[in-house]
Amino acid sequence: MAGKKLGRLLVGILTLLVAIGLFNGISATPVVAQAATVTGYGTPTQDPSSFLFWYSNTGFRTQPQDTYTTVGTTKKLTTAVGYSFLDTFFNGLSYNHFQWYQSTNNGATWTAIKGATSSTLSVTPTKPGTIYYQESFGYYLFVPPLLPDEYYYSRVAAVTALGSPINATGITVTADDHYLYSNQDEAGTTTVHATTAPTSATGDVTWTSSDPSLATVDKNSGIVTANSDGKSGTVNITGTITNEDGTTKSSSVSIKVGGGLDDQTVDSGKTATFTVQGKFPTTPAAVTWYKKAAGSSTATKVASGTSLTYTTPTTTSADNKAHYYADITIKSGINSKTITTNSAQLNVSYSDTPKVAITGTATDTTDNTGNTAHVLTNIVSGDTVKITGTITDTNPDTKMKAGLLFIKVPAYCSDTAIKVDNGTSDIQAPMKIGDSYYLVTRKAIDFSSNHSHSYEVDFKSLVDTDTDFTTNLQMEAFNTDASSLSGEASQGTNSVLGTAKDDHFDTYTSPDINLHFSSNTLTAQAGDVTFGSLSYANVDQVIEGQVLGGDDLLAVTDDRRDKTATTISLRQATPFSDGTHTLTAKLSYANGSTVKQLTDTNQVVLSAGAGIKVGSLNANRGQELQLVLASQAIYPGNYTSTLDWTITSAPS
């Protein structure tokens, strides 16, 4: 077709020469109209490929379709034309000149149909058989092209008249495009198609739109046109074939209408992805993404390149209601076109409830032997205890702006101090509240800009008795500025902080820390032993003593920090006596298989080396008293004896 349009103005010829190279870089292969199996009046013109309202060449974007009918029933053939960018730009005054042709002898000869000079043609067969139709058009102002091959030609369509109607049992609907732009200078268009079962069904197919405000459809041609008001949504285009007997079959296809971008909704802390929709047969030459902050009319460039997808950084509540759009530039040869998508909104779902975590690690800075992060087992008077940790709010959208710390400390301690973020220690006397004692910082913590802080609590123990104490760091949260909380800690006794501010909304705590305060001594408690009721039948037998209450024979508590070598000695201070008579009997201390007869002189029954904790003596370890009665006169009575236990620790 290099020689077509000779009747145009000279500028039209130049247009053609430029257009040949204009779309040379397009990667999509144009679809060639599929003609019927007969030779047409002219060679069918290549179908134009379109994108972003450009057409790769001028030609038929809607082709006449093969159809079946009955004698005397009218059918309508419809076409639509698309114009190349250069034809539109350089030949703006030109217009279409249509002409329909028909062949009644399988394409052997063709005849121009008189008066058939529009894009549609109504055909009413008068006898059974197939007649072929083809349309041509010339795009010019006054002077028509001189040769037939200088026109554009549609595919050859067959209209077959049958002797009797054939009902459709089903219909399938498809669309050339499933996304149409509604925010550009020209409204997006596409064409829907119907395939009937059987294909020889003679009924008429008509088209309807579920929402004409989104997109309309020509009821006969199936050409769908989006709105030009920027309205977005999804429209269903339905094709319905009506059979001769009045029955119908319908099917629908969904087409999305919009400005290229959809609004996105994500949870705070997640990213959002915007994707430009619609067909792009070639990679854009440039895509630039912009953001407008919530409530702002100023756009900021956030990305550039060729990607039709943009993923935001991790979102926060500040991103809620922000808008994004893209400028897309398509180039072909020396020509380019830029479109701007709609402005899509980012909706960020978020919670302002703080996510506070408080850690706490305890250390006996004097001697931390045998301790863990949350358990100090042997704090003696004079030891310094340090508790350190962090307070972190991981919710970037938190409503917490400030916090006040407090921690429970023992009743007897000194040098109590607390500091935040390695600042100056705030030395305070513990404040008694009820039966508990609290160390309260007077310094509020500011969370408005920094959501993570460190803390340190120090105190010196004055406790000299065996005591167990459980504590944790607690923080009252406020949604007011830290500066307004200064000095809020009350010296009252009704609450920890005593604040009456309405903006206090929660309290957060660290894991429990267990503190064992030791007397730093070794103590022991001897149990009372009974041998029960005895008789002559028990003479010369070994009678095992039982500790009353099932307690230890000698209950030992060794809380010494410096465990020096220790011995435990035992002697029988008095013989068994009922106050009148003395019982002749042998009393022994048994330690497993070792048995020592007791006398009024101390005998070592346990030795523990340096660094070894002294444990209790009990029957579970094989440690017990044994009694043997002598074979001689026994006076009935209640006999008792006194034992002396002596614990000796060697100097360190």
SSE blueprint:
Elements: H1 10-22, E1 50-51, E2 54-55, E3 59-62, E4 67-70, E5 75-78, E6 80-82, H2 85-90, E7 95-103, E8 111-112, E9 120-123, E10 129-140, E11 152-153, E12 157-162, E13 170-175, E14 179-181, E15 189-197, E16 204-209, E17 215-217, E18 223-226, E19 233-242, E20 248-258, E21 264-267, E22 273-275, E23 286-292, E24 299-305, E25 309-311, E26 322-332, E27 335-340, E28 344-349, E29 356-358, E30 361-364, E31 375-379, E32 384-393, E33 402-408, E34 413-420, E35 426-427, E36 431-433, E37 436-440, E38 445-446, E39 452-461, E40 467-471, E41 473-478, E42 504-509, E43 513-517, E44 522-526, E45 529-530, E46 543-544, E47 546-547, E48 554-558, E49 566-572, E50 585-591, E51 594-597, E52 603-608, E53 623-629, E54 643-649
Parallel strand pairs: 4-12, 14-20, 21-28, 31-43
Antiparallel strand pairs: 1-2, 3-6, 5-9, 7-8, 7-10, 10-11, 10-12, 13-15, 15-18, 16-19, 17-18, 19-20, 22-25, 23-24, 23-26, 26-27, 26-28, 29-32, 30-32, 32-39, 33-37, 33-38, 33-41, 34-35, 34-39, 36-37, 40-43, 41-42, 44-48, 45-47, 46-53, 49-52, 49-54, 50-51, 50-53
